[in-house]
Amino acid sequence: MSLFNWKKNLQKLKNLFVVNSFTQDKTFSLSSSRKPYQRKVTLTREYHPTNKEKTELPTESASIQSALAPLFYATINPDFVTRQLKTPCGQVSIFYYQSLVDSQQVQDAIVEPLVTLTEDCNQIAWEDLKDLLTYSHVVTEVYTLEDAAAHISAGRLFIHVEGFAIGLAVKAGTRESRAVESPKTETVIRGSNDAFVEEIRTNLYLLRMRLSIPEFIAEPVEQPHRSQERLYVLYIEGLTSPKLVQEMRRRLKSIDVDMLYSIGNLENYIQGRPLSIFSQAITTERPDRTISHLLEGSVAVMMQGSPQALLMPVTFWSQLHSPEDYYFRWPIGSFARLIRVFALIIAIFFTRYLYCCRQLSS
Question: 73: alpha, beta or left, given left = phi > 0 and alpha = psi -120 to 50?
Answer without folding.
Answer: left
